[in-house]
Amino acid sequence: MFSPFSPSVATGRGTAGRRIAATAAAVGLLALGSLAGAGSASADEDDTHHQGGAVATLDGLKTFDSARLDTGDGKTTDISAGLFELSVEGGGRLQTYCIDIHNPTQKKAKYLETPWGQTSLGANKDAGKILWILKNSYPQASDLTALAKKAGAGELDAKTAAAGTQVAIWRISDGAKVEAKNEQAEKLADWLEDEAQNLQEPKTSLTLDPNVVSGKSGSKLGPVTVHTDANQVSVAANADAAAAGVKVTDKDGKPVTSAVNGTELYFDVPAGAADGTASLTTKATTQVPVGRAFASASKSQTQILAGSTESTITADATANWATKGAIPAVTAEKNCAKNGVDVTAANEGDTPFTFELAGAEHTVGAGESKTVTVPVGEDEAYDITVTGPNGFSERFQGVLDCETQGTPAPGTSGGGGETPDSSPSPSEDGGTTGATTGDTTTGGTTGGGDLAETGGSSATPVIAGIAVALVALGAGAVFMLRRKKAAGH
């Protein structure tokens, strides 16, 4: 069931943020540019590729109440706790809770539906309890009278129910010490935390695996396997495939226009086709499964889905072919265990494929594949380009965000780490509310606005003004750096 959403601040009673121990899937990586078989291809820097799933933009914190976070050393701070709202590209709305209290949200941040293993949930043995909470509390449990009765929480409204649910989630996702300020919301949080059971990660809404294949012309390239929670998805060859005479078929060569979970798709490339690439698109209109994680394409706190309207979701796959020579297919996936990004190059051609990555040259034999791990620091943005002969180029961008504990701000220690300050945002009555942190009172908000509170208190108006100036300077520096890089190319 779908209902009003709102962003929240994450925190919990469990252990501190954990490092993911397993390699994550490629969802959430941004690949810009193009893959070419033996021919060159032009880069389109506005083209964003991932294995599929919902893509959404953060709209802000909508349904929430107050909570109190223990920041250590006997200090506390008041934070907002509740539901976020996001708009799905292609149509649809999402509501989410936060599972990343130590990172702030970014206004209008883009989010990608992401496997648990690509977030801090991957190393959290109690991650399945969060799914239980989502399924048994607001907004999925829309009868608040019945929910309050189960939890012994007296009376609940949407705001206090959302706050209590978020508090319970933070205790498990972030190991933070947090309590709802409303007594009934706190009783709900305690009940949810005590009753929660570990459930299995929900299926993806729609992904393709792998999303890049290669081979010789005159054959069927694949398979590309459809993974979806939808009853049915449409399948269509894109214009580049039609122009090359490439058809999308099953393994027997029969044309495919629709698919279900587990369907295997192939690119049927005619003999004599000029060396090149082609793509297909799958599409579904469905509700995104509750419990799916959403990671930011930039550095904005990770979310977990609490509700969805019917949403339009797409996933693309690409095929590269040639008549002879090296025929590469390159993919990338975050590897949190190795603190980096695994770049895998497969070569389905009949000669070796030599490529350059991170300043070093690598060679993949015919019919072989090779994985190279590019080191990336926690919370760092990466921009990785793979180049090869005949104009081959593939670019991957993203942020390595494997822990709930964010990178400490300059001048802070790395132990407990304070969340970077966020500027005060208007409350529903147009004002802001003060937040007490030990013996210091700051301008933290408990009202509405586009930016969620994320564990750290907001600054006073003077400090907020300085923060805005620093952000502007930072943006200018990034802009100048990008211009410099462009000139270098």
Please give a structural write-up.
With about 500 residues, the protein is an alpha+beta fold. It is built from 6 helices and 26 strands. The protein has a 6-stranded antiparallel β-barrel. Strands 1-24-23-20-21 form a 5-stranded antiparallel β-sheet, with no helix packed on it. A 5-stranded mixed β-sheet has the order 8-17-14-10-12. A hairpin with a 4-residue loop joins β18 (about 330-335) and β19. α2 (about 145-150) crosses α4 (about 185-195) and α3 (about 160-175) packs across α4 (about 185-195). The radius of gyration is 24 Å and the shape is elongated. The chain starts with about 30 loop residues before the first strand and ends with a helix.
Question: What is the general shape?
Answer: elongated
- Helix proportion of residues, in percent? 10-25%
Largest sheet: 6 strands, antiparallel, barrel
Order of neighbouring strands in the sheet with most strands: 2-3-4-16-15-5
How does the SSE layout of this entry go?
Layout: E1 30-34, E2 55-72, E3 75-88, E4 93-98, E5 110-114, H1 127-136, H2 144-151, H3 158-173, E6 178-180, H4 183-195, E7 206-209, E8 212-216, E9 220-228, E10 233-237, H5 239-244, E11 247-249, E12 258-259, E13 264-268, E14 276-287, E15 293-296, E16 303-308, E17 310-322, E18 328-335, E19 340-347, E20 353-357, E21 360-364, E22 368-375, E23 381-387, E24 393-399, E25 435-437, E26 440-442, H6 461-488
Parallel strand pairs: 8-17
Antiparallel strand pairs: 1-24, 2-3, 2-5, 2-6, 3-4, 4-16, 5-15, 7-9, 9-13, 10-12, 10-14, 11-13, 14-17, 15-16, 18-19, 19-22, 20-21, 20-23, 23-24, 25-26
Helix pairs in contact: 1-3, 2-4, 3-4
